[in-house]
Amino acid sequence: MQLVFASNNKNKIREIQQLLPSNIQILSLEDIGCFEDIPETADTIEGNAILKANYVTEKYGYDCFADDTGLEVEALQGAPGVYSARYAGEQKKDDDNMNKLLEALLDQTNRKAHFKTVIALNLNKKQQLFTGIAKGEITLEKAGSQGFGYDPIFKPEGLSCTFAQIPLEEKATMSHRGKATKLLLEFLNSSL
Length: 192
Hints:
By secondary structure, this protein is α/β, with parallel strands linked by helices. 31% of the residues lie in helices and 24% in strands.
């Protein structure tokens, strides 16, 4: 079975492909000849996942899934949320985003946060949504070189280190994306 993952983020594609059984092959946007930026204009994480999945299905005709992820920080009333990738500007630089967040939390004692991933699956003309949440807190400084995005400043519940300090395989078992993908896989396995 081939499914398009509406992403060109090689880190995300690799992370998700590792979680899928070998009989499901992931195609990237590049693989199907989609080189345009898919608009992410919704004001929710769910909305952006749906926009991306629908864009690929409507324009290219493929069954597909798309995800959107946000980091929601309690002390910042859920920010950066849907704007996580461009929190520090349209250049979408991880370091700039992390620096801005650490600065915003400088005087905060409440550093609780959670990552939220929503996957929208368009399969056989039906749409399903799968949500994964990883609770934790924002650290005082960056640590680790694994992962991407906010991983170096996010310490998940139950760990004494950041997502960026653990191997990708271990992160996948407890991450927001891992949890949402597990639900997606359970659904795909029961539908095949």
